[in-house]
Amino acid sequence: xxxxxxxxxxxSQVISMIGSSPALVNAxxxxxxxxxxxxxxxxxxxxxRRGRVQPLAPQKQILFxxxxxxxxxxxxxxxxxxxLILKHNALRHLSEALADSDDRYQSGTLAxxxxxxxxxxxxSGAGFWNVHIEGAKTLLExxxxxxxxxxxxxxxxxxxxxxxxxxxxxxxxxVDGIAGVGCPTVIIMAIDLVSSQRRASIEAVLExxxxxxxxxxxxxxQIQTFDIHSWATSVVACPSLKITSISPKxxxxxxxxxxxxxxxxxxxLLYNLVEDADLLLPLVDVLRYEYSALGAEHCLVNGLAWPxxxxxxxxxxxxxxxxxxxxxxxxxEGTMCANVxxxxxxxxxxxxxxxxxxxxxxCNDPGAWDWITELSSLEDRWIFL
Length: 385
Hints:
GO cellular component, one term: nucleus
Number of domains: 2
Number of strands: 6
Strand content: 5-15%
Radius of gyration: 22 Å
Order of helices and strands: HEEEEHHHHEEHHHHHHHHH
Largest sheet: 2 strands, antiparallel
Keywords: Nucleus
Helix content: 55-70%
Organism: Cephalotrichum gorgonifer
Protein name: Acriflavine sensitivity control protein acr-2
Number of helices: 14
Structural class: mainly alpha
Strand order of the largest sheet: 1-2
Subcellular location: Nucleus
């Protein structure tokens, strides 16, 4: 999602590819149908219940206005069926394109794969989104080997956007960056790096090799010392980004929210390795203050699903839990992305485990609750952007 308007928004160029790709046509229509169904019903087509992603299609009539000032009724089941037909057509045409050596590396094919990843986010937030992204990256790399790089920068930008995109500008010799969801590029890169370091630490444990502890400490210091206010001022002033509707003050609040969430995430990972209690600072309420300073109705709140989820997962009080649920509901109303609607269901599973652990131990030690490991133990791969 691009909540910060920019000339570098890759999705603005996708429409020009539609004529050459039936797979892309159906993928775009499937995205529209999914968003339409969510807007009409107020519920996601698929929801997370009893440990599984399941279709939600009660027999209720939805009324749509027509051009003759009348309304036309359609059931939620019909909406689901229309959506599934479009998604099936997109997958079928994509399969045909991948089987054709001429179409396999075309930009329309690659864009279709990435729109299907976006569709998984809109549909539920779980499923095969990561498979789609890795598949597109592999095709892009293979195409480069054969000298096929049609729209390669655009496809790379779409991949970056799905993994929290980076928009950069060169201002006075220094590079400042902002993601489409309002996050500083430095923080995005730190989150990506830490995720890689986390995988490396798991492999190191399995192979009895050195853990990347010092690297994690270095990344944490980089996050903590990042100057949010200077970043916000320089980004808003950057002429190539053309950010005119957001003030440096509001952008600083958004950047601070991402910074604090990243610090909570990295600190927890480090604590799991070194068990240093000084790492577990009570930052959730500080993060909540930044939300209140920004304002609940600000458009950039719609891009704060990940920080909200992190704050909710690491919360230690019932007040913090209630707050996280309220913010996620606000983001659902603003985006109609089912990943945000399903995020509270995942949090409730984590909180239930936390409450059981507290009851067994008889104490409320924040170090005892390893929410990252508990989240990793869930069956589905979730994307909370």
